[in-house]
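Appendix B, record 7
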Amino acid sequence: MLSKQSDLPVSPAAVPDQPRKRRKANFNRRKWAPYVFISPFFILFAVFGVFPLLFSIYVSFHSWDATSGLGGMKWIGIENYTWVITTDDWFHKSLYNTGWMALASGIPQHLVALPLAFFLQTAFGRFRNTFVGIYFLPFITSTVAISLVFTTLFSSEFGVINQALRGLHEIPLLGMLFPDHNIDWRQPQYTKTMISFVVWWRYVGFNTVLYLSAMQTIPKDLYEAAIMDGAARLKQFWYITLPLLKPMIFFAVTLTIIGNLQLFEEPFVLTAATGGDGKMSGSGGIDQAGKTAAMHVFTTGFAENDFGTASAIAWILFILIAFMTWANNRLFAQKD
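Structure tokens (predicted):
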């Protein structure tokens, strides 16, 4: 019989396993360390992304003048949505302008970018990247700078475009298609055409680069077999390039739909008016012929201080973009 307490047998469970605890602590630190390192992104995204998104939904069901503070909010349900859809004539007109310019600038982008990319792929060798960079340059140039330059080019008195059109009028037979006088591009019947041309010019190079990158993934064996069969360049493009570019066409058209339905910068600057305070604000031009839905959101919220209606317009526009994207997906969906 053991006489001392120290001589009593000790259970293994009673002995603290310090190495095991240290290993567990190190494991926990390694487990949570990645989340700690990426947490700044999620915090910033939650503050500047998720919160404004959810807050705009909340505001869209209220009548709110931001100058009155949060206490000035008044719950009105879906009244903002019903008023915008049924009564707001300026929204209807801005939506029409947006659709008109989206089609007028979007469709030519791809009709030009597709054959242009094929031409660059087949006609140029080592100098191809140089020409690609030239075509891509407008996309990375400042939108404000581009719009200001084109404002000068479309000047009714001394604009280069008017001079070019008058020069084309002097050509026999072809001249009847062009005017013999200067065109005031600020007039409502020309405003949307002017904006659409600038948008087309800026983004056709971007789509060309997309299609060119997709063409470089097409196996060259297909073209070699087509050449051996006597297929000309046109048939190679129609029967080989175009079908294999279907995924990229879907992607590029989707980007065009999303971008053109959110059109803001080009029309904002091209139709800018200088107020009494000397600040430039996009007015949409005469009779607001160039006012887009995104511009209407801006003016409703920041010019009229009606943030409830502006939020409702923004979400209606979001639903429209989502529907058009879904329709485009259905259009390009592969059949069984």
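Remarks on this record: The chain has a mean pLDDT of 84. Residues 19-75 form one domain.
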